[in-house]
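hey so u asked for the seq, here:
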Amino acid sequence: MNDFKPMPAMTRLPHLSLLLAFKSVAELGSFTRAASALHLSQSAISQQVVKLEEVLQAQLFERSTRSVVLTSAGQELLAELKGPLEQLITALNRCSRRHQPPVLHIETEPVISAFWLTPRLRQFTKQFPEVQIQQILSTQRVEFPEQVEVAIKWGGEQWPGFESEYFLSLNYAPVCSPALIDGSPPLRVPADLAKHCLLHDRNYQDWKRWHALYPDEPLNVENGHVVTDSNVLAQMAIEGYGVALCATELIERPLRSGELVIPFPEMTMRHPLAYYILTRPQHTLSPTAKSFIDWLRSMVGEQSAE
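ran it, structure tokens below
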């Protein structure tokens, strides 16, 4: 004869706020950090956890002045709750956004945003007029805050922690104000570069790479002005401070307007670094983000075909 008697089912489920409070404390290991994450007071979080323990008639945490540690019951509850709660939160967020205009958060660098992306972005917004775009501009490192789905960053082939896709290479050439061509001294042949001030982006490396490709020209590449902003570099060249080595793909407007000229168009350099599209690994992109990436690919395809 089987004497097993199942425990009576709970007639009333704990309130969702109690479960969220428990999950936050368990994952963050602190009532204080959980309170900050949920925008509540520490005492409110503590009371919610105590109430959940009372409802379940089980101790979920071992508490001390310095730490909060899950009991075996707490570990089991967290393992069972974590997946369903995250699915529920995702479903609720998706439902709440359904009647709101989609917002695409992207991370870019200032120079490609100003000179390449923004001039073309109107084509994307015409195709997807309901989409609102928020750009986060960053240099040197990848910020990639939680709301960002896509980043366009400059660097090498390896991007640890991200899914990366090659996007755009840049061709560098000496550029200057047209006033320098017939100035004093003039800039008519490559050897004339030695008579002019060179303008550098962050360091001397790009001019060194260029000179390694064209070593016949006598040139001291470690002279001239150095700036840490590519926008300022192009503006200094426009103002006639000297000759800058710029990516021709990023100075299309001043080249079209005649503010900048390329005195030696045959002496270009394909930069060893490039722009890459970055996304989170094993993360499902929104339809808007997928459309944006497809659009980026099409823009590069059009540019290559020109």
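Strands lie at 61-63, 68-70, 103-108, 132-137, 150-155, 163-175, 198-201, 225-227, 243-247, 269-279. The CA atoms of residues 22 and 49 lie 6 Å apart.
lmk if thats what u needed
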